[in-house]
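Quick one, T. Sequence first:
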Amino acid sequence: MGLSAGIVGLPNVGKSTIFNALTSGKAQSANYPFCTIEPNTGIVPVPDPRLNRIFKYIGSEKILPAMIEIVDIAGLVKGASKGEGLGNQFLGNIRLVDAILHVVRCFEDGDVVHVDGNVNPIRDVETIETELMLADLDALEKRLKRIGKMPDADSKAEAAAIRKAVEYLNEGTWLSDDLFTELEREALRSLFLLSRKKVLYIANVHEDDLAGEHPHVAALKEYASKSNAGMVLISGKIESELADLDLDERMEMLGDLGLEEPGLNALARETYRLLGLQSYFTAGPKEIRAWTIRVGAKAPEAAGVIHSDFEKGFIRAEVYTLEDLETNKTEAEIKNKGLLRQEGKEYVVADGDIVHFKFNV
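Structure tokens:
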């Protein structure tokens, strides 16, 4: 679907380390500010155990998970909205993504330089978010000057929405969707405001604190809760070590750490959810595949993700559930028992549906 999330944060909080582990990429990572200049981009699979559950009953040549695009954006600093630390360039990169993954350092280590001299997660978060809001204020005020006196109804509606957004930003309030009407949200959409993007906080913890017991983690969790934002715990150091191991060694290390899966798996799933996405599946002898759709998508839209012709010539969707498959073992038996549902154009595809589409070319 072309949706992406950008990893942001202060310099030296572990953004590039986490990005590399997440994407098996080669983004530059070093113990000094601004080691990342140009944004690095990677396509990340979304781990989904349901794919292997389907494979148990429908043998296939390959399994293809859903994918999301992750962008590693260079570290921001106080004053970024005024161009400090190449801030204008970096802020421009953030405008292009659909959601923000905000890496926050939640560990103490005298060997890792902090740009402000000491670790304080809430101060660090507020530094980044203040710069994003200041950049939006500047953009909104410039836009308002251009359209403020235009007489047409669309310009007047946009100007009213902008004034409302400016008022909230001057109060230090993040521009969440619930603050605006649908018409106001539509008027603001084309401005790609930084402070309207959904946020997931990534608490980068010490390798000895995987349970997140440090007070820094508790402080960030409380902040995220008040902001109605999500949070995941990640040890960038451990995830980077896991990424360099083969599967057997990785599973052994996870067992030694008392973990069922890498923390990055949870991060990928939470990012997917943050973007308002879900998966449905197609399954056959050639491939079992997770297809990405927005939550609330109807059957023709879901079909169009496979090919535009599927949407244009949509006739119906044949749908069953994973639970149907696990109970009845084969698609044939599902059909015999009348459990293969025939759904039309108004059907809202559910997360985890297994679907066959019928269409005319």
